[in-house]
Recover the amino acids of this structure.
């Protein structure tokens, strides 16, 4: 029995294995417990292993690559068309084995331990930011029932709540005053967690040359740069900058037929967190460019004929392509750079 291609359906405890030989003949159908996976593949000759890019996939990819195997991760939507019958673990493993052998398949780069660590910091920070926003909105809503309003902005919550609690003439009952003080203490704790995680991310950014390089692009700061470096990894896995922009969901969605091209809004595929950071950074770059119009002629011409929201997405798309060029070719950012036609 010589395995050449294997599909693994990952799970928490029991993994389903499906393997074929060089002729495509099925030679292995097996269930393995989590503790058996490493031992099983350590005793096999190197082969091509396919897995869906899901929870723990990057960990198992690193473990199996350490044993000499070639591991490919695929987005689940690229595996689903190969499921021949009802969904079960065996059918999923067979579909993965079939999909990984296709010559035109796009794969997900395997992330290193450092990349996953930085992304974990980003995900934790994102969770605290959402919780902080929710807590601020709850405080606003409760105070609104007593005729007390707070201006927009997270900073306004931190400034106005102490004033409201100290004002004895605003008609706020004592029990309600205690509740708002409790919620405000929770808000401050969430805000502290956000700041501490941001400090850790920025410290990693300062020690990463690639991240510092990306932060020189207008509209990209330390948070966005570190998230891009940790998510993209090897930019050479993308053929060109447009592929990276498409991976981030920043290119138009198509609905074309009969030779007639119809382009819709952006596809919004890929990582919504990265896409959000790039677009918000582009909005900040637009505000800065409007104050210094002579430094960004392309952007100012775009703003003259397009809505600012469309211009922000266009700038985010352009920045994504610049990111690919800097990472893939090891270049430094130069404002106003124009490629020379060969």
């Amino acid at each position: 029995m010589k395995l050449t291609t294997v599909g693994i359906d990952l799970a928490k405890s029991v993994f389903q294995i499906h393997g074929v030989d060089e002729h495509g003949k099925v030679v292995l159908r097996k269930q393995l417990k989590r503790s058996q996976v490493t031992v099983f593949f350590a005793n096999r000759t190197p082969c091509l292993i396919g897995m869906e890019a899901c929870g723990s996939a990057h960990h198992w990819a690193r473990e199996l690559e350490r044993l000499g195997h070639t591991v490919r991760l695929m987005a689940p939507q690229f595996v689903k068309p190969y499921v021949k019958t009802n969904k079960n673990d065996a059918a999923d493993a067979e579909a993965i084995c079939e999909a990984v052998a296709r010559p035109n398949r796009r794969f997900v780069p395997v992330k290193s331990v450092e990349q996953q660590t930085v992304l974990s910091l980003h995900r934790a920070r994102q969770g605290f930011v959402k919780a902080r926003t929710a807590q601020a909105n709850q405080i606003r809503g409760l105070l609104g029932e007593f005729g007390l309003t707070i201006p927009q902005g997270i900073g306004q919550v931190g400034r106005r709540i102490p004033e409201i609690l100290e004002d004895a003439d605003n008609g706020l009952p004592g029990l309600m005053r205690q509740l708002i003080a409790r919620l405000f203490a929770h808000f401050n704790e969430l805000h502290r967690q956000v700041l501490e995680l941001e400090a850790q991310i920025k410290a990693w950014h300062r020690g990463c040359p690639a991240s510092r390089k990306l932060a020189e692009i207008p509209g990209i700061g330390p948070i966005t740069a570190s998230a891009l470096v940790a998510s993209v990894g090897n930019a050479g896995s993308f053929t060109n900058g447009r592929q990276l922009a498409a991976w981030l969901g920043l290119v138009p969605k198509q609905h074309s037929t009969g030779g007639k091209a119809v382009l819709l809004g952006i596809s919004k595929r890929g990582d919504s967190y990265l896409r959000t950071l790039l677009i918000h950074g582009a909005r900040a770059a637009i505000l800065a460019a409007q104050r210094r119009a002579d430094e960004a002629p392309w952007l100012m011409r775009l703003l003259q004929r397009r809505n600012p929201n469309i211009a922000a997405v266009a700038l985010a798309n352009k920045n994504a392509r610049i990111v690919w060029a800097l990472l893939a070719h090891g270049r430094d950012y130069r404002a106003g750079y124009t490629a020379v036609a060969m």
Q: What stands out?
A: The chain has a mean pLDDT of 91. The first strand starts at residue 5 and ends at 9.
